[in-house]
């Protein structure tokens, strides 16, 4: 599941990027006013409105639309829901302003791979990225074992089109991931080959990479202090003080009665100072022995006016901060 906020599209120009200003959107009205009116229409109706005219199709597929929604709507956020294996089941976009759903095209399908799970979906600008995951590949042996994926796909919210990008250096699923909108970067850390169909089976890794959106390339960063999969990641700070936090996850496993593998979960976290290719430092444990076994889903809400971000953990019906 990924949330896409048009607040992250502040780099979009206020002028129409793909819409020819000589084309009339609504006869009798200035294009600036017409653009504002059309921007209030829910996304669920856009596919039916694009055939109205070339000018409507151009405007409804432009970044200007997202910029206008951000500037003039009280709640301009979008929520994109990805089911298991989005190459087979299409994702859905939920418009929080109009409480409406609309389906998006499924991710490009690989005829040899199936059952994708433990991938990461994350938003950056007017795009949503689907990274890695674990899947089954008919070309691998044995075929009943999951394989990590290095594939990266990008969904353009403006025109609902998919692109395949440069793959990660190391294939991985169940990893920590965060975006740096100001620098146009995506960071990934840890992960492995675990699949939802299996318990503690699968590999673990400690490699860390950074993706440059502009260059479409990955570079390797200093690896985690130890193997860590099933972890969560987020950025803290601003400018030169930016840090990449990776928390929780599992690294080792033990067996019950010598047969059933069980994950050994970490209670601590590690932090990477991004300035000048910094090193990792370990931070204290999140809870005492016996309090918890693992992290729930973690959501990070950016702080305003210089405030620190709020980190929330969702675990069943409980919410922790």
Structural notes for this entry:
It is a single chain. The protein has 321 residues and is mainly beta. It folds into 3 domains: 31-71, no CATH class; 77-167, no CATH class; 172-320, Kelch-type beta propeller (Neuraminidase, 6 Propeller), CATH 2.120.10.80. Helix content is 9%, strand content 36%. The protein is built from 4 helices and 24 strands. It has helices at residues 31-39, 46-49, 54-60, 63-72, and strands spanning 2-5, 77-81, 92-95, 100-103, 113-117, 120-124, 127-131, 134-137, 147-148, 152-156, 161-165, 176-180, 185-189, 208-212, 217-221, 232-236, 243-247, 250-256, 260-265, 269-273, 280-283, 297-301, 310-315, 318-320. The strands form 7 sheets. A 4-stranded antiparallel sheet has the order 1-2-3-4, with no helix packed on it. Strand 16 and strand 17 (243-247) form a beta hairpin. The protein is globular. The two termini are 20 Å apart. InterPro entries: F-box-like_dom_sf (IPR036047), F-box_dom (IPR001810), Kelch-typ_b-propeller (IPR015915), Kelch_1 (IPR006652). Residues 1-22 have a biased composition (Low complexity). This is Kelch repeat type 1.
């Amino acid at each position: 599941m990924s949330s896409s906020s048009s607040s992250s599209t502040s780099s979009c120009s206020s002028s129409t990027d793909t819409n020819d200003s000589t084309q009339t959107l609504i006869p009798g009205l200035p294009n600036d006013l017409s653009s504002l009116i059309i921007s209030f229409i829910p996304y669920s109706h856009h596919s039916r409105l694009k055939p109205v005219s070339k000018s409507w199709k151009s405007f409804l597929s432009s970044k200007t639309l997202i910029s206008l929604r951000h500037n003039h709507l009280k709640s301009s956020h979008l929520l994109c829901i990805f089911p298991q294996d989005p190459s087979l089941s299409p994702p859905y976009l939920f418009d929080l302003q109009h409480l409406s759903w609309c389906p998006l095209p499924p991710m490009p399908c690989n005829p040899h791979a199936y059952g994708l799970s433990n991938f990461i979906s994350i938003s950056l600008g007017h795009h949503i990225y689907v990274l890695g995951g674990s899947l089954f590949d008919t070309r691998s042996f044995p075929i009943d074992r999951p394989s990590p994926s290095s594939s990266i796909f990008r969904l353009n919210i403006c025109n609902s089109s998919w692109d395949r990008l440069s793959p990660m250096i190391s294939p991985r699923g169940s990893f920590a991931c965060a975006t740096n909108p100001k620098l146009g970067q995506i960071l990934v850390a840890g992960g492995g080959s675990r699949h939802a169909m299996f318990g503690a089976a699968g590999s673990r890794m400690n490699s860390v990479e950074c993706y440059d959106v502009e260059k479409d390339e990955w570079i390797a960063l200093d690896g985690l202090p130890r193997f860590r999969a099933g972890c969560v990641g987020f950025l803290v700070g601003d400018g030169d003080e930016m840090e990449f936090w990776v928390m929780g996850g599992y690294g080792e496993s033990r067996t019950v009665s010598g047969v059933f593998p069980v994950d050994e979960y970490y209670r601590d976290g590690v932090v990477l100072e991004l300035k000048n290719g910094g090193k990792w430092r370990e931070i204290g444990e999140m809870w005492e022995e016996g309090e918890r076994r693992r992290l729930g889903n973690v959501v990070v809400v950016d702080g305003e006016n210089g405030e620190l971000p709020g980190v929330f953990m969702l675990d069943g019906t409980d919410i922790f901060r």
